[in-house]
């Protein structure tokens, strides 16, 4: 039951953040999220027309994003070169 409420909260935040993204960056293009979690924001952004890429170090989170949202996250730690 807890998972249902957590997912709803993530989706609500993702919807709000996508709305802000569309206001401040109305021309859609490439979007990179570092620390993509379980992919809710990328899913919403992709649904709104963005080309999305996400990096996430948590293997279970990457698996969840792929299974639930068909978002293939890069399972890695981002390192600045």
List the helices and strands and how they pair.
Blueprint lengths: L1 H23 L5 E5 L5 H8 L3 E6 L2 H11 L4 E2 L6
Parallel strand pairs: 1-2, 2-3
Helix pairs in contact: 1-2
Top keywords for this entry?
81 residues, alpha/beta, Rossmann fold, three-stranded parallel β-sheet, 3 helices
Describe this protein's structure.
It is globular, with a radius of gyration of 13 Å. 21% of the residues are buried. It has a three-stranded parallel beta sheet. The protein has one domain: Rossmann fold (3-Layer(aba) Sandwich), CATH 3.40.50. By secondary structure, it is of the alpha/beta class. The chain is built from three helices and three strands. The chain is 52% helix and 16% strand. Helix 1 crosses helix 2. The model has no long low-confidence stretch (mean pLDDT 87).
């Amino acid at each position: 039951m807890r998972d249902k409420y957590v997912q709803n909260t993530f989706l609500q935040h993702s919807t709000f953040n996508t709305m802000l993204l569309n206001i401040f960056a109305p021309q859609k293009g490439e979007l990179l999220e570092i620390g993509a979690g379980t992919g809710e924001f990328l899913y919403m952004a992709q649904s709104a027309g963005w080309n999305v890429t996400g990096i996430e170090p948590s293997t279970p989170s990457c698996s969840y994003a792929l299974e639930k949202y068909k978002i293939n996250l890069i399972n890695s730690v981002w390192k600045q070169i």
